[in-house]
Design goal:
- The protein is of the alpha/beta class.
- Helix content is 34%, strand content 27%.
- The protein has helices at residues 12-15, 36-49, 64-74, 79-84, 98-112, 122-127, 132-147, 171-175, and strands at residues 4-5, 20-21, 25-30, 55-59, 88-91, 116-120, 152-158, 178-187, 190-200, 210-215, 218-221.
- It binds adenosine-5'-diphosphate (ADP) and magnesium ion.
- Magnesium ion is lined by residues 36-37, 120.
């Protein structure tokens, strides 16, 4: 049996029968402002706080300082405590480069015994790669490299479309073990958050789209409600 890695996100773990599978690679996709960064950090924060697993957040878009200050502004999480005690590390890759990324991952994961990794977002990796062929080759190489390190990986990706119907997928959705899609749906004159598990290899996951909220405690999913 492969162990489970609970996200600790209320309502979400039930959708995936207890959590992600250990050492698997999951893509967290969605349009801008759909909660990808919040979800990803909550996975690490709960990991450090509740499950006593070390987390590494590779922030490629925002500097670690800006990422932290934004999160602290809107969420009542004691991130500083975990940064201080080393159970949460936020790093970046200056002038993104695939081999720098591998080096950083390798050194943190093996040196600090990191169990949960976030890379946010994949979009920056694509933008900094010569062409689509190189991107695919590098991404497949990175995932293979991560397989040999003992950790569960969540990678965020920007989806240009917001509707479920118009969503198109590219290589990354096919090669990862799991895909979670976040939406910010226009309903009447407001927007509502919703999410679905598009795939999760080896898990009999929920096939429905459920609403979620973001509060100062983070994301809460409502699997009883229908969007
Ligand atoms: N404490 C909060 N209360 C309500 N909404 C929040 C809170 N924190 C964040 N949000 C919402 O989440 C959105 C951004 O989430 P974020 O995780 O940065 O999304 P993404 O990474 O997908 O762009 C914000 O635009 C805001 O609407
Ligand atoms: Mg983000």
């Amino acid at each position: 049996m492969i162990g489970k890695v609970p996200t600790g996100i209320d309502g979400f773990d039930d959708m995936v029968k207890g959590g992600f599978l250990e050492k698997r690679h999951i893509l967290l996709t969605g349009g801008p402002g759909t909660g990808k960064t919040t979800f990803a950090m909550q996975f690490l924060y709960n990991g450090a706080k509740t499950f006593k697993e070390k987390g590494l957040y590779i922030s490629l878009e925002e500097t670690p300082e800006k990422l932290l200050s934004n999160l602290k502004q809107s969420l009542k999480w004691d991130l500083d405590k975990h940064i201080k005690d080393g159970s949460l590390v936020i790093a970046t890759v200056d002038k993104f480069d695939w081999s720098n990324l591998s080096d950083i991952l390798q050194s943190y994961i093996t040196r600090h015994g990191v169990k949960r990794v976030v890379i946010d977002p994949l979009t920056i990796m694509r933008m900094n790669t010569k062409d689509e062929f190189e991107f695919r080759r590098n991404l497949i190489g990175l995932l293979a490299f991560l397989e040999n390190l003992d950790c569960t990986v969540l990678i965020t990706a920007e989806l240009p479309t917001v509707t479920r119907e118009a969503t198109t997928y590219s290589l990354e959705e096919f090669i990862v073990d799991g895909v979670v899609v976040l939406y910010n749906l226009p309903i009447k004159n407001e927007r509502r958050f919703a999410l679905e598990v598009l795939k999760m290899r080896g898990v009999n996951h929920s096939k429905s789209m459920y609403p979620f909220k973001i509060t100062d405690k983070g994301i809460v999913v409502y699997p009883e409600e229908i969007i």
